[in-house]
């Protein structure tokens, strides 16, 4: 169900403008949705494209979570529409950091010698 909710949110982010100064001109991508076992809560991991000010965007999305939940409920038939909790997806940043570590001269030297 997490993937279904993610697709619904992606559609919502593309089609609906949320009137909030902090979200003006921001393009948001939902990368993953983890729904709790009871189906009542969902962690939505997002990436704002072209921006990195998560400390502004995440609280703005969480302010509009009930509105977005209503929009999801119109698009997805579920027993319960989970409460949405928006979180920053830092997995791409972590991947970039690992790539930088692996390409450092010291690590590359260790990898080539083994």
Describe the structure.
The protein is α+β, with helices and mostly antiparallel strands and 114 residues long. It has a single domain (2-113), classed as K homology (KH) domain (GMP Synthetase, Chain A, domain 3). It contains five helices and three strands. The chain has helices at 2-15, 54-63, 65-75, 91-102, 105-113; strands at residues 27-35, 41-49, 83-88. Strand 1 and strand 2 (41-49) form a beta hairpin. The longest helix is centred in the first third of the chain and has 14 residues, at 2-15. The radius of gyration is 18 Å and the shape is elongated. The mean pLDDT is 86.
Output the keywords:
114 residues, alpha+beta, 5 helices
Helix content: 40-55%
- CATH C-level class is Alpha Beta
Please identify, by name, the CATH architecture: 2-Layer Sandwich
Low-confidence stretches: none
Rg estimate, integer Å? 18 Å
Produce the secondary structure layout.
Blueprint lengths: L1 H14 L11 E9 L5 E9 L4 H10 L1 H11 L7 E6 L2 H12 L2 H9 L1
Parallel strand pairs: 2-3
Antiparallel strand pairs: 1-2
Short recap of the structure:
With 114 residues, the chain is an alpha+beta fold.
């Amino acid at each position: 169900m997490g993937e279904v909710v993610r697709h619904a949110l992606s559609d919502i982010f593309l089609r609906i403008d949320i009137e909030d100064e902090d979200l003006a001109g921001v393009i948001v991508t939902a990368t993953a949705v983890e729904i709790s076992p009871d189906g009542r809560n969902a962690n939505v991991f997002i990436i704002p494209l072209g921006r990195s000010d998560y400390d502004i965007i995440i609280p703005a999305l969480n302010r509009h979570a009930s509105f977005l939940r209503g929009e999801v409920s119109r698009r997805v038939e579920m027993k319960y529409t989970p409460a949405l909790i928006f979180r920053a997806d830092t997995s791409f940043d972590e991947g970039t950091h690992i790539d930088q570590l692996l390409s450092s001269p010291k690590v590359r030297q260790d990898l080539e010698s083994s």
